[in-house]
Amino acid sequence: MYYSAGTYESFAKPEKPKDADKKSAYIIGTGLAGLAAAFYLVRDGQVKGTRIHLLEKLELAGGSCDGRKDVSKGFYMRGGREMDNHFECMWDMFRDVPSIETPGVSVLDEYYWLNKHDPNYSLCRASEKCGKDAHTDKKFNLDKESSLALAKLFMTPEKDLEGKKISDVLPDSFWNTNFWLYWQTMFAFQRWSSALEMKRYLCRFCHHIDGLPDFTALRFTKYNQYESMILPLVRYLENHGVSVDYGMDVKNVIINDTNGKKVATQIVYEKNGSQQTIDLTEDDLVFITNGCCTDTSCYGDQNTAPDISNVRNGVGESWDLWKNIAAQAKHGEYGNPDNFCTDFEATNWMSATIQTKMKRLSRRLLASARETREKEKSLPAEL
Strands 261-271 and 52-55: what pairing? Predict the structure, then answer.
């Protein structure tokens, strides 16, 4: 999929790649990125779905786009995507994923209609003193020094920002601005966050700036993102023969370096308490998604603090995999996860969300109830 030449290339069907029928793919992780990789292999790469394997540690797909039901907790979600109208790859994908609720339309159609009828906005961007409007009044309150520093950050080459925190490049006056309040509550940044990451966000979401004060830049789904995004995408893939293997805890991907060419030769995983391997051939493709933004999540409640004893120093689902892969590198070419997970006290992120419990009829039960009511209307009055 290309967007470099208007719609000329973006909607043309690509030619089938050479040897596509010989290729197999192993995708580690079933978050939105992993599922999207499988989608594009099927639609554009024209790889046979039966040769695409998604490996997931948990018992359901979705990664951070979850919305799972727990009998003891109700519905709960660890994370979610804030979407806008410039998610080109995402909208391109969902225009070809059928809705599982409305026959004959795509998931993108559902998004578009919903946000046309009910556009997103916030009447009160911030509150204080037990729910009173903080009166940020859609103002950024940026002083000259902060404005110049943001502009400089936007234009600074990435290599000059490596290893720096936001606090290293922005002045003290910045932290009292409404811009910072808007920014950190939308994108989950802290003062210790990467200056390089903030630069990338500024470049990627510069069109968001005017929507920061009231959320008008965002698009939302009808239901939680698991039901509105993940379920239709998983069904699309399964209908094309793609397999989703749950309970697959991938521990390592063995990578050989031969004459400067790095080739994955084996996937090491645990399932049902047993360590197993998948040997790879030259026709196998491996896609690794790691560094999940809700990795090592743990939960508390109104009366109980979450137990974080097992997640200190980055011990978790994707950090361990990344560490094992990085350990194979001779020159640090697979990154250094320790830069992100060794200072637990600095990077630990806590959030609170309202949880409600209610009885929820499934769509099938609701449809059955409607059918019963229609039948009752047609019964003789004497009954």
Answer: unpaired
Catalytic residue among 40, 201, 223, 246: 201
Rg over CA atoms, the chain:
24
Give the integer Cα–Cα distance in Å for 332 and 343. Answer: 20
Whole-prediction pTM value? 0.84
- Cα separation, 244 vs 232, in Å, equals 14
Closest CA to 196 of 152, 150, 157: 157
288 vs 240: CA distance, rounded Å: 21
For the chain of 383 residues, list the mean pLDDT of each consecutive stretch of 10: 65 91 96 96 97 94 77 68 85 95 95 94 91 94 97 97 94 97 90 93 90 91 90 97 96 91 95 96 93 75 80 64 91 82 72 61 47 45 38
Tokens of 282: 């030259």
DSSP per position, 140-205: ----HHHHHHHHHHHHS-GGGTTT-BGGGTS-GGGGGSHHHHHHHHHH---TTSBHHHHHHHHHHT
Alpha-carbon distances, residue 31 vs 3, 300, 357 (angstroms): 24, 24, 26
Active site residue 299: no
Is 269 among the residues known to form the active site? no
Give, as one character, the DSSP assignment of residue 83.
B
Q: Which residues contact 32 (CB under 8 A, 6 or more apart)?
A: 62, 63, 64, 65, 81, 90, 229, 230
Query: Which listed residue (76, 82, 223, 270) is catalytic?
Result: 82
Give the residue carrying structure tokens 């024209």: 46
